[in-house]
Amino acid sequence: MNKNKLREFAISQILFRPTTLARAIDQLGFVQMDPVRSPARAQDLILRHRVAGYRAGDAEKNYPALNVEEDYLYAYGYMPRDISNLWHPKKVGRLSAFDKKVLEAAREMGEINPKKLEEYFGKKTVRNWWGGRSRAAKHSLDILNYWGFVKVVRREKGQRVYKVRQLGEQKLTLAERKMQLILAIIKILSPVTERKLGAALHFLKQGLGDTKSVLDRLIKSGELTKQKIDGVNYLFLAETRAPKSHEGVKILAPFDPLVWDRGRFEHLWGWEYRFEAYTPAPKRVRGYYAMPLLWNNNVIGWANAKKDSGKLNVDFGYVNGPPSSKEFQKALEEEIENLNIFLLE
User: What burial class does residue 255 get, using C-beta atoms within 10 Å of its C-beta: 0-12 exposed, 13-18 middle, 19+ buried?
Assistant: First the structure.
């Protein structure tokens, strides 16, 4: 497979005809979440290309009725409940005395959110996973959610509401669970570079243990194919959709599965893309929330979109200048209009 076919293949695996919200999440397998909203949150920007008539916030509104969980896969996000169930129970380290108190409070209260917990435990802060400061109660709920003791049942104004997770009997062996989770991750990111797959399996290793022997077994059995293309090792599922050419313009989320593997992105499209929201402003190259711009089978640049006084403003940057064709200009205008409609509340 050459690089052009690899591009088509990557796009074909993850972009499909818009469908219902439930079917889109099931077909994607995972939708990464991120709190930054510029012009919308990552999960909404990802879903808008895959769900017919999608509006920003629809996933959060409909979450309680969906067969979906907020959980960790290769990042934090929405996933089908069948995939989330493969995670639990996890190999859990020792909980702190404070975490145990929070878990007991969650059992007593039924449903619980961080603000409610602050009434019992105060507003003490602790250092969080990202090096900043968080309320101790909120951070403890994050820990309990990570290890599977509690789960998100809904959100109220963006705030997670939790309840204690009730674990059913796990019918699969640990090796079978790891195998299915590895296959799920590779399906989402396929074709994934061998190097990036290691990072994608980080949470799996933490929660369920070593993955190397299971991954080797999948390659040996033929369920996974390993191929070197232009000096880069890629992993594919044995059964995948046949590649076909993509047409039109799409402004993609920074965490869209198509662009999540930054090494693959640079290999396929020949330029470096980085998410710069957490980069100091003077050091930004493309913008606070620059979103990759897909035209047919090529990511040709990026877009920064912002709503100001109800009006959507979109600025574009290009690697080698904008295409001069009327077809591109028309498709670009249609995508801007689609983005504007998506942002209407």
Answer: buried
Q: Render 30-93 in DSSP notation, one character per residue.
A: -EE--S--SSS-HHHHHHTTTBTT--TTHHHHHGGGSSEEEEESSSEEEEEHHHHHTT-S----
pLDDT, residue 128, reads 63
Nearest residue to 58 (alpha-carbon basis) of 49, 68, 47, 50? 47
List phi, psi (to 5°) of 218: -65, -35
End-to-end CA distance of the chain: 44
- Higher-confidence residue of 82 and 114: namely 82
pLDDT at residue number 68: 97
Say what the alpha-carbon torsion angle 129, 150, 90, 88 is, to the nearest 10 degrees. -130
Dist CA 203 CA 91 (whole Å): 11
How far apart (Å, rounded) are the C-alpha atoms in residues 59 and 54? 9
Residues 264 and 260: their CA atoms lie apart, in Å, by 8
User: Structure pTM?
Assistant: 0.93
Helix axes 174-189, 212-221, angle to 10 degrees: 70
161 closest CA partner among 55, 45, 76, 63: 63
Amino acid at 328: F
Q: Say if residues 303 and 326 touch (Cβ distance below 8 Å).
A: no
Q: Mind listing the domains of the chain with CATH numbers?
A: 1-85+171-345 (no CATH), 97-164 (1.10.10)
